[in-house]
Structure formats: structure tokens, C-alpha cells
Amino acid sequence: MEISTVFLDRDGVLNADDPGYVLREEDVQVLPGVPEAVKRLTDAGIGMIIVSNQQAVGKGLLSMERAEAIFRKVIAGAESAGGRITDYYYCPHLRESNCTCRKPGTGLFEKAAGDHDIALSESVFVGDGSGDAGAAEQLGIPFYLVRQGWWERTREFCEDHQIPYTLVSNLFAAAEEILKINQGKTT
Q1: Rounded CA separation 110/9 (Å)
Q2: Can 11 be counted among the known catalytic residues?
Q3: pTM of the entire structure?
Q4: Considering 9, 17, 128, 132, which one is annotated as catalytic?
């Protein structure tokens, strides 16, 4: 399998997660190695799409305008080494809403695939949450679990639900594994 697209969770993968939500641009802390990973994947011709649950909008803690500004700040930091994130999608709904766009739902992935002519069969997902793992399983794509954010709870979830995953230290390590696959050097 050649990987053409990497779907990325935002909080816990690209930037430090805050259990009380990332609510201000000044709270954005791009994680170490992220700009370099984004550059390496870009240089290899691999597209990147952020797919994120942002329930703080639905709770009224964050306006859509502020959510967009936070995304722009995260993306600017992630692209600071010269890489490029193709696009981002997020679900602003509450967990209880049972919408199809909130991970583990696959609505945002399907929208991104349609918008950018992405073959989901050539995609992987890098995340730290159980919703990320569930979405990857529903899509039938490989899931890379970063040892950041909610990873410990997510690892238990994956084990309990027999969801396959590859445990990596961070996005840079995930990028290294993805590049090995594309070079035919799977581990």
C-alpha cells in the first residue's frame, strides 16, 4: 500500500492538548517535531488533512471565529519548517448530538475525500483519542497512536475493542514509519 494522505487529529498530535480545551490562540503550543514531520511528509508528496472534534464550540465556550483563528495558529506553527497541511475539518457539535461528523463518525473524512479526491484506501490516521481509533477502524485505515495527549486511555480502548494500532512516540515518528512504508521498507 502506498500512502497518499495522512489524516491528523489536532489537539494531542499537532499541539499540546488541554483537558479544559484550547480556547485562545495564545494557548496554542505546537509540539516538538511537528514542523519537521509536516515538512518531511510534504516533501514526499503526501497530503495532510486535520480532522478534529471541537465540542467547545457546541458548549458555547468558543465561537466559530475563535475556533478558526486557533486552527490557523496551529497550522502556521505546523507549517513553520516549510511543509503544507492541505486542509482542516472539524466537528463543532456536542458528544450527545450523535452527528455523523463527530469522530468516531466518518463524515468529515468522507467530505475531505470528496473535496480533495482522496483514496481512503491510501490513507492513514494519526491520533491520540479513542474517537480517532474508532474512526480509523470504521474507515478500515491504519491507525497510528501517538504517545501524547490521551494515548494511555486510548491504548486501553484499542486493546479492549481489538482495534489495531501502531504505537509511536509522536508525529515525527509516525511520519518516519509512513515514509518507510512508501519506500517499501515496512517494519
Answers
A1: 15
A2: yes
A3: 0.95
A4: 9
